[in-house]
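Exercise: predict the fold of this chain.
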Amino acid sequence: MKKAIKLSFSIWLILVLAFVPLSQTESPFVNATEEGSELVQQLNQLLNNDPLLQGALAGVSIRSAETGKLIYEHIGDIRLRPASNMKLLTAAAALDTLGEDYRFTTELLHTGSLNGETLQGDLILKGKGDPTLLKKDFDAFAAKVKESGIKVIHGNLIGDDTWYDKERYSTDLSWSDKSWYYGAQVSALTASPNEDYDAGTVIIEVYPGEEAGQEPVVKMVPETDYIKIVNKAKTVANGEKKDIHIERDHGTNTVVIEGEIPLDGSRSREWIAVWEPTGYALDLFKRSLAEQGIKLQGKVIASPSPAGAKILGKHQSMPLSELLIPFMKLSNNGHAETLIKEMGKFEKGEGSWEKGLEVLEDKVKTLGINTDTLVLRDGSGISHVNLIPANEISKLLFEVQDEKWFPSYLNSLPIAGNTNRMEGGTLRNRMKNSNAEGNVKAKTGSISTVSSLSGYVSTTNGEDLIFSIVLNNLTSGSDGKVIEDTIAKLLADQ
């Protein structure tokens, strides 16, 4: 009996030992090259022991840009919230679906006929998603109306935003984000305050009054009657603390300004999302018409274009290849969600998040991404329900290198340490005075408890690497940036 037990134990021990090498090769850290062994040790030390990551999840994936081979991974197949690294998927899908030369069009239409200098009909502005319309573009439309001989519009001024559906917010957007530029409503007819092109927003600026005790001076860019300002703030003496709060009441276009600003205080400024951007665009156009001396006798309404409306003029946006610069460099959420809807309209005839996300999923699948492991809820990454493994992000970054539109894609990524705002973007103040400066081109991402950085790096030995860093369950976003920059600089130093 004892002999049989000993034999059984020996067989069990042999079997256990036989499986030891197999379990070693299944390490979560992908077999690194001999040259990369020191890097692997450095990354392991950082990810396993840095106190900034205590209690957090760190998905890290590093590939050869030439072969796509994984050099290193740390929980690279675990689905994590990507924040604005989601825009890497959206930009790739948009380029593949719409093309680099795609432009958004806005149409100027009219009904009825011109009787002398009076238009006996309606004037219509039909939006088709352009997020880059500025006040000067509405001025150009108004000049076109004047050139046609119209001085009086007997009918209505109509804004047609039916190119997209009526849903203004993506599914998971928090109500607390809806007053701010990064949570602005998406409409097919909208306007931007400046050349950052934060569509559906106005810029509110607060300056000290002339004397202590007076209300501060408030300016809007662009000037619009669509926003009502309630100024509860006051100017205080030189040297006192500045504490100004600018916020829009939910569900309204009333902006309340509270707090104090000293006589010698600097300007306070906030980008505020409007409630219902179609009306905002119409107000700007109405102002432009008035500035041209054109009188509107009817009402200003949002409505589908009446049947039989005739074209009077049109405006086209910059091509998508150029729009990608403010979109990706500045991480513009509105652009991402607009592109989702536009892809739905272009491919499936419906400008909705549902159809646009279907196109997004189809496109990244054709680029070799395992869509069975993704959860896609929006185009910007503001949702906390989006889930993407770091290995799938790095795989996407590898696969897109063979696409004809890749130069435009790469050119849209922020560049570490480049202080030019439209080149360095969200990385312009990071990784300065290191080998990563100018050599890391990557998309940043940040929402509450999440930070991410994914892109390309040229190392000191001339090798090009692809990396994706997705950090979840952080207590501080700045901690995430420290980790990301450390990893990126380690890669650049190779």
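Check your answer against the key: The chain has a mean pLDDT of 92.
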